[in-house]
Specification:
InterPro entries: AceGlu_kinase-like_sf (IPR036393), Asp/Glu/Uridylate_kinase (IPR001048), Fosfomycin_R_FomA-type (IPR024192). With about 325 residues, this protein is α/β, with parallel strands linked by helices. Helix content is about 30%, strand content about 20%.
């Protein structure tokens, strides 16, 4: 692993859950409304206090249903009126309805790169997830966020039996120190033992947190947080606070275990090749063990905006809906 040196600390690492920014039941379809709101929330959270409401859009390429490229240098006039001074964030997104289908159908996550179907699926998966990455970068850029897409495979990430074996973070560090917001994603990568596998965004978040040590981490999902059973169950209860001990084991603090009176159940969708909520809680617990608070909250809501802004760091208000995972000091 290459040593990561940053001139200043990172404020926040954000995970954009695939189910929150895509329509998970429609192949390769983005949830445009959610992505637009999340991008706006990120701009508000990153803003370092300028009162300017004007945005310098940075997507100067043609888009579907947009006949003219509206952004050009001559539109900007006095550049001092625009705010491009943002606090230091890193964004990582999941695949949602991009990539998971290709990976699960070809078995990329299981390895076996010598098999023609797996090799074809590896290529197809990367085409899909990098397509989504570009669209997310463009959405953030339209909000004036100086985003840089960074694919783990292309940046030298690899695994050994699905655990991160190598990751050159120097490019991420240089991008941050240059004033950019790196945008990484779950990706198909080479694996020393299996040949290949899927590196999930949640694992990437944990690795980044270990080396970049952000002040806090936010997982934006399609539900209000972690529940004691599938949230579609009418008896599901939101787990508001989870504590992590020295051994990395986690336990529910609020609501009290006695009030739950039932075993916590966590399920994984059949098409999810990255472990779903099981992986999310496990990786979040490892981050919390570092002394970094983790908030899991529904994307595109007032609750997620409060988490992104760091408003919860000095206490969780009763009217906030989400799950906080903290190290039990």
């Amino acid at each position: 692993m290459e040593e990561t040196n940053l001139n200043q600390t990172i404020r926040c690492i954000v995970k954009l859950g695939g189910a929150a920014i895509t329509c998970k039941n429609e192949l390769e379809k983005i949830n445009e409304e959610n992505l637009e709101t999340v991008s706006s929330h990120l701009r508000q959270a990153m803003n370092l206090g300028s009162c300017s409401t004007q945005v310098m859009g940075m997507d100067w390429s043609k888009r579907d249903a947009v006949s003219d490229i509206s952004s050009s240098l001559c539109d900007f006039g006095d550049q001092c009126q625009f705010n491009v001074d943002f606090s230091r964030f890193v964004v990582v997104h999941g695949a949602g309805s991009f990539g998971h289908f290709q990976a699960s159908k070809s078995g990329v996550h299981k390895g076996g790169l010598n098999q023609p179907l797996v090799k074809a699926g590896f290529v197809a998966t990367r085409i899909s997830v990098t397509t989504l990455n570009l669209e997310i970068v463009r959405a953030l850029a339209r909000e004036g966020i100086p985003s840089i897409g960074m694919s783990p495979y292309s940046c030298g990430w690899s695994t050994s039996e699905r655990n991160v074996a190598s990751a050159d973070l120097s490019g991420v560090a240089k991008a941050i120190d240059s004033g950019f917001i790196p945008v990484l994603h779950g990706d198909a990568v080479l694996d020393e033992r299996l040949g290949c596998t899927i590196l999930s965004g949640d694992v990437i978040i944990r690795h980044l947190a270990e080396h970049l040590r952000p002040e806090y981490v936010v997982f934006l999902t399609d539900v209000s947080g972690v529940y004691d059973r599938p949230p579609t169950d009418p008896n599901a209860v939101l787990l508001r606070e989870i504590a992590v001990d020295e051994d990395g084991k986690w336990s529910v603090v609020k609501p009290t275990p006695q009030s739950l009176n039932k075993q916590v159940e966590i399920t994984v969708a059949a098409h999810d090749t990255t472990g779903g909520m099981v992986t999310k809680i496990s990786e979040a617990a490892m981050i919390a063990k570092l002394g970094i608070d983790v908030y899991i909250v529904k994307a595109a809501t007032s609750h997620s905006l409060r988490a992104l802004r760091g408003e919860l760091r000095h206490g969780i208000p009763d009217d906030w809906l989400g799950t906080v995972i903290q190290f039990s000091r």
